[in-house]
Amino acid sequence: xxxxxxxPAPDQDHAWCxxxxxxxxxxxxxxxxxxxxxxxxxxxxxxxxxxxxxxxxYEVPLFTGYVFALAGKQDVLTLRQNQRVANLLSVYDQDTxxxxxxxxxxxxxxxxxxxxxxxxxxxxxxEVRSGPLKGVEGFIHKLKSKTRIILNIDFIQQAVAVExxxxxxxxx
Length: 172
Fold this sequence. Notes:
- By secondary structure, this protein is an alpha+beta fold.
- The protein folds into two domains: 1-91, Alpha-Beta Plaits; 109-172, SH3 type barrels, CATH 2.30.30.
- It has three helices and twelve strands; from the N terminus they run E-H-E-E-E-E-H-E-H-E-E-E-E-E-E.
- The protein has helices spanning 26-35, 73-80, 94-110; strands at residues 15-21, 39-41, 44-51, 54-61, 66-71, 85-90, 114-117, 125-128, 137-143, 146-153, 158-163, 169-171.
- The strands form three sheets. Strands 7-11-10-9-8-12 form a six-stranded antiparallel beta sheet, covered by helices on one side. It has a four-stranded antiparallel beta sheet with strand order 2-5-1-6, sandwiched between helices. Strands 3-4 form a two-stranded antiparallel ribbon.
- The chain is globular.
């Protein structure tokens, strides 16, 4: 994994928080963060829709309503005052959230087919041992001869399913 694809780690002045955005305001919240020099991460997936003979592609938030931000104490106050932010959730396990977000980001950067999946707690935990998703851990789920692993974001109880060849997986 190259350095440019890594999410920044929290430090003594900045911590990851989860912004619960008002409906259909996720991209506007990210734009607000950019203008205030606050690092924000909004995982986006490509949706395709056919309108008659035309095929349109557009990006939609992977986790509807959620934006992840690396913010300092003053930034948190600024974010709380934004009318497009419904709630700001503090993250107590920074390392777990960062690891899980990085896994979703790696999958998004290297995968063209993703779908939102219900949050899973049970199932066999696996790790991808080779290929562009090497090192990504998730829970296995089989569906009609396709092998999928589930990447959980425990903090917001959301998950993403990624198709992976079964022979690339090893139990953890």
